[in-house]
Design goal:
about 150 residues, mainly alpha, about 80% helix, elongated
Amino acid sequence: MTEKPPGHASIPATATATATATAVRAAGAAAAVLTVAAGLGVRAVSGGEVAKYAGDALYTVLIHTLVVFLVPRVRPLTAAGTALAVSWAVELAQLTDLPAELSRHSTAARLVLGSTFNAPDLFWYAVGAALAWAVHTRLTARRALAHV
């Protein structure tokens, strides 16, 4: 049997995992709120292509934060890849009439699905995924160091 160092309480692994998942979910929710605020802020202070392409990148960052919220133990590369795949799928769906039709009937659909395909958006989604991956990787490494 392994001895525990004096002064260290035994915490069941499930309690630790649950606490970690809760903390990661809270961070994911906070990051989602900050991402939406950043998107609204960019729209408020700039316009044109800057706002549009920053919004594209932040769209993918938001999806990344939602993936982390839903799957707290997800690895940064998996979350970023999932966010990028969803963003690209939504953009490519705009090559059909479905998103435009749904957007005509719903503001929420217009915000989530858009309506018109724009090839440069694909690049900016990748920028957002790379940014989200970098931040997630750094935070994951920092959290791992804090538990050493």
